[in-house]
Each structure stands twice: as structure tokens, then as C-alpha cells.
Amino acid sequence: MAVLLPSLAVGARRLHDTGRSGSWLLINLIPLIGAIILLIFKVEESHDNINQYGPNPKI
């Protein structure tokens, strides 16, 4: 339980880096398929420019 909130926060930040809303974390509720889709979203490259969530943290 102590790991749940930080994991959600990190997941939402990572999705924001790729230009997606943090609500995409809810797709993880779909067994297997949701986890695969979320994994694909998380390993994508961040946007190079500024998105609605702020500047790219790599730059």
C-alpha cells in the first residue's frame, strides 16, 4: 500500500511526458491487455517540444 501512491504519481508523470493524460492509468484495470498497452505508452519517447503538461524534462 505504501508503494501504490508513488507508483501512480510516477506513472502519471511518465504519461504526461508522452502527451497523454494520467487517466490512462485506469486502462491497467483491463487484465493483461491493459498492462501491455500501458507498457507501450511508458516506453515511448517523450515529446521534444512543450506539451500541455509542461516542457520536456530531458532538455
Structural summary, described in words:
This protein has helices at residues 4-17, 33-43. It has 59 residues and is an all-alpha fold. The longest helix is centred in the first third of the chain and has 14 residues, at 4-17. The protein starts with a helix and ends in a 16-residue tail after the last helix. Keywords: Membrane, Transmembrane, Transmembrane helix. The chain crosses the membrane at residues 24-41.
How is this fold's topology laid out?
Layout: H1 4-17, H2 33-43
Keywords: Membrane, Transmembrane, Transmembrane helix
Transmembrane segments: 24-41
Pfam family, one: DUF805
Counting helices, strands and paired strands, the structural category is: mainly alpha
Q: Any idea what the shape is?
A: globular
- Distance from N terminus to C terminus (CA atoms, Å) equals 33 Å
Written as H for each helix and E for each strand, in order along the chain, the element string is HH
Low-confidence stretches: none
Overall residue-averaged pLDDT value:
87
- The overall number of domains is 1
- Summarize the biggest pleated sheet: none
- Rg over C-alpha atoms, rounded to the nearest angstrom: 12 Å
